[in-house]
Specification:
Blueprint (H helix, E strand, L loop, with lengths): L3 E6 L7 E8 L2 E8 H13 L6 H8 L4 H17 L6 E4 L3 E4 L7
Antiparallel strand pairs: 1-2, 2-3, 4-5
Helix pairs in contact: 1-3, 2-3
Length: 106
């Protein structure tokens, strides 16, 4: 089973598009993204090890419903799953979402 050790943003990425670099127990996986999945990844990465609640997710993405926020998380998970990286997002009831392996240290 692949274990996620850390997650980074590839140099040259912007808040519009870029790539996640996922360091796993089996090697490095590059996951290019754009649009909504990238925006969600960027937000979660900026939060580091802190959980991002649904309200903050909605604000950061400029969306008005919890359902749309959940769908955005699902789309992000699908992008990573397609690249062979499962369980990239941790969900804790009442706390929100965060990247497994952390993000920015702050």
């Amino acid at each position: 089973v692949m274990k996620i050790e850390s997650v980074a943003v590839e140099d040259g990425s912007t808040d519009q598009a870029g790539a996640a670099l996922v360091h796993t127990s089996t090697g490095l996986v590059r996951v290019p993204m754009r649009g909504r999945p990238w925006q969600v990844f960027w937000l979660l990465h900026q939060a580091g090890v802190k959980f991002v609640d649904t309200d903050r997710l909605q604000q950061g993405l400029g969306i008005s419903s919890e359902g749309a926020a959940r769908n955005a998380i699902i789309r992000l998970k699908k992008v990573f799953a397609k690249a062979g990286v499962e369980k990239i997002v941790e969900n804790r009831k009442g706390a929100g979402y965060r990247l497994v392996g952390g993000g920015s240290p702050g």
